[in-house]
Design goal:
six-stranded parallel sheet; about 400 residues; seven-stranded parallel sheet; Rossmann fold; 14 helices; 2 domains; globular
């Protein structure tokens, strides 16, 4: 069986790494997988991209051009119109003549919406965020207009019915009609539910299969060694906040996290922000703060997570956060709000703590539960067991292979 995976990148961002992990897992399972990306970050020959110098230059610019509407509207929340033509991605995929085309995160200028209907093979689309069924935003907050037709987009600060979000939505309606065989895969039960209630996917088959993780790599490591590598004190308890763009993206919940921590009088504790260099402005926290810049390689991730006694993921809206599963796989419990797909990963007071929705006081309770837990070793063991049972790559890849075979056999 020949599979083509389309993604904006193979390493740049959580969604990209999720796609690349599946690609590598398929190869290990003897599936002929090729990954086609807009921007290639590795030297992996099984990952291909439009190869001319001109196209490489244009591909560097495409994400910024596609997101220019954010700067015009003043929004800090990601919005993708996916209007830019001539990416060459679909032509490259069709030339491979795959049995299955598996879409992942394809915004940021990767594929023009209208080009999706030109894919020749059956399509499986992983929902790494909400963009495939919205008018352009990647997370909607409390907006449910995607269930009808978008318009009056709060992300764009618009009060117009026929705004850009509605125009993008209409383009998707027409483009999706051209895809003969489309299966939607939500990576969490939450986003699958959103897709089923959406106008764009309400008639499609929607399944739930999580992302896969290499638990042989993501595993517990001596905390003293990990802290030595990143220069973090060994004689302190460490709270880790790990995310992409953790301090500038409001959805990541840094403000709520800082409010929760400042409610407590913690002793012998340091706070680590992973995914950001030290900012010019000092964080408003009463605890010592350390910074770990963004990491692009998989090998460094387990070292980063193993610096921590607890990881906090305070996102205000989340699908299936890589940081939660990566942390649990390393035996580090996680505190998060009980929103989105978090309950798929965290069993309350078993391998972590699910705080009441956006309740900073309850998040503070979670910090106390984690740091003062007499059964910490058991919690750590349960953390890793959860990932081994549900998210290990050998388990998840088999679900995808079975799906591919069913689709191809049914065709």
């Amino acid at each position: 069986m020949r599979v083509a995976i389309i993604s904006a990148s193979e390493l740049n961002g959580g969604a990209a790494r999720a796609a690349y992990r599946l690609h590598k897992s398929l190869l290990l399972a003897d599936i002929d997988s090729t990954m086609v990306v807009q921007k290639k970050c590795s030297d992996d020959f099984t990952v291909i991209t439009p190869s001319s110098r001109f196209k490489k230059l244009i591909n560097e610019l495409r994400p910024a051009l596609d997101h220019i509407i954010m700067k015009i509207s003043g929004s800090k929340v990601l919005f993708s119109s996916s209007y830019l033509p001539f990416s060459g991605i679909v032509d490259k995929v069709n030339a491979l003549n795959p049995d299955i085309v598996h879409l992942h995160w394809v915004a940021g200028g990767t594929v023009r919406i209208e080009d999706l209907g030109k894919i020749n093979a059956p399509v499986v689309w992983n929902l790494q965020d909400m963009w495939p069924f919205t008018g352009g935003c990647h997370y909607t907050g409390d907006c449910t207009r995607y269930e009808n037709n978008c318009g009056k987009c709060k992300i764009l600060n618009s009060n117009k019915e026929n705004d850009l979000s509605k125009r993008v939505f209409k383009r998707k309606v027409e483009a999706y009609k051209q895809i003969d065989n489309l299966t939607i895969v939500g990576v969490s039960r939450w986003i699958s539910g959103c897709a089923k209630s959406s106008f764009l996917f309400k008639k499609n088959r929607v399944l739930t299969i999580p992302n896969c993780f290499n638990t042989d790599l993501l595993k517990p490591i001596d905390k003293n060694i990990a802290r030595d590598i990143f220069g973090i004190p060994k004689n302190k308890k460490v709270i880790l906040f790990a995310a992409m763009n953790p301090l500038d993206d409001p959805r990541k919940g840094a403000a709520q996290l800082f409010e929760a921590l400042n409610l407590l009088e913690l002793q012998n504790v340091v706070f680590v922000v992973a995914g950001s260099s030290k900012p010019e402005e000092k964080l408003k926290l009463k605890y010592p703060v350390y910074f770990i810049p963004p990491l692009s390689d998989e090998t460094s991730l387990p070292m980063m997570y193993n610096t921590a006694d607890v990881v906090i993921v305070p996102s205000l809206q989340e699908n299936l956060a890589n940081s939660i599963i990566e942390s649990l796989s390393c035996g580090v419990p996680v505190i998060a709000f009980n929103i989105g797909g978090n309950a798929d990963m965290i069993d309350h007071k078993v391998n972590g703590y699910l705080a009441n929705n956006l309740d900073v006081k309850d998040m503070a309770n979670g910090v106390t539960w984690a740091l003062d837990n007499d059964n910490y070793i058991e919690v750590s063991i349960k953390s890793r067991e959860k990932v081994l049972s549900f998210f290990d790559r050998k388990i998840v890849v088999r679900q995808y292979i079975n799906l591919y075979k069913e689709i191809v056999g049914g065709g």
